[in-house]
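Objective 1.3, modelling of assemblies. Example input:
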Amino acid sequence: MRKIPNIAVIRLALYAKNLEILHKEGVELVSSVKLAEMGGANPAQIRKDLAYFGQFGVRGVGYYVKDLLDALKKVMGTDRTWRLGLFGVGNLGRALLGFKQFQERGFCFTAAFDRDMDIVGTIVSGLEVAQSEDVKKIFENSKNFDIAVLATGVDRAQECVDRVVDAGLRAVLNFTPIRLVVPPRIFIENVDFTVRLHALCYSLTTGSDVTHPHPR
Amino acid sequence: MRKIPNIAVIRLALYAKNLEILHKEGVELVSSVKLAEMGGANPAQIRKDLAYFGQFGVRGVGYYVKDLLDALKKVMGTDRTWRLGLFGVGNLGRALLGFKQFQERGFCFTAAFDRDMDIVGTIVSGLEVAQSEDVKKIFENSKNFDIAVLATGVDRAQECVDRVVDAGLRAVLNFTPIRLVVPPRIFIENVDFTVRLHALCYSLTTGSDVTHPHPR
DNA sequence: TAGATTGTTAATCGATTAACAATC
DNA sequence: TAGATTGTTAATCGATTAACAATC
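Predicted structure (tokens):
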């Protein structure tokens, strides 16, 4: 079997998003050309990306929107709700807890941690904030989230991720600017808004567009 | 002159970040090999990326950290402070206003807008919140920011960006999940956390790592 | 059947890496 | 000079696009 390019996997999420729109509009059938017009790729690329994972279409007809959407969700692992655990209930943390998009796209915060004892025990967005030091104890008992969302201060980030990894978690969405050091089997996504701003600065300065045409 | 790949421009920001670290550590000289070890690219790629923009090194010696850093900042347009205007002073907006990383990396909020009259007129993070409808009037008088940061609700996003464009702004960092429609000369960066979460889901589900090794 | 559109192979394009002459 | 490291060309690798047979 051929190696699937990472970028193809990422585009799958984009196709799913567009299919979701079509499904809501009541569209039942779509072609790769139509899907391409919605943005993100050219028709050949869409067909090729899909072909990495199976044969989802009907020759001469196209793709059935609902079937393809369900198939893609299964492939991406988003045919379920993923539970998020927040670390650091500061300004950013609170904003993330209230982010409607997460809920809508199948993500849901089910735990929140902070090290500040003034915050621990309070209820934020319906979640009781627990103490960061207790992650391992809490997680081993309840296994009540799948992905750690790191929104602590810079100085606490590494310490916090160490505890998260020690507790047995395997995936981290990192909003701190620190390059975290973790064992190889742990998945990390680093979010850095300033990188995106730099692309805008360069574009404004030189006039040549280096922005990403699609969300990252 | 050869076409410069967008990705090379993006990597420049990464190199600058690493050079900043070296500079703070008091390191004066660095080789492409050393820079590569700090992450982000292999030595040949670093030399090639830099070569798109000029000859910054000394053969047999390496790159002078401070000189290269200054040169890169100039190239990227970050040898100055960029002023940000916030649209939407909700949870996310407030979190962004308080984000220390922006300040540290040469970005600074100098204006804030909201359409909610309860918020307009209040001071948030030292900024008086103005009314969104007044962007054009305010901007044409003061020209007091360079980049619009869009953190409004979904339903107001397009309307808001229309006003921003009409006022004469050319760059937008978009935190809403909407695909904004703008004239071709406008630069837009779309930030979507859920895309990053999807990469984690796929990795967790299949075991094959499709995460980005470097911040985006 | 004729028209349409997939799935897949082949061609193209672009980006990364290796190699090495230039040169400090 | 000998050793080191850049800048740049050539080789490799991988991803995108074009083309078309398969087939509904």
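Chain B touches chain A through 64 residues (CB under 8 Å).
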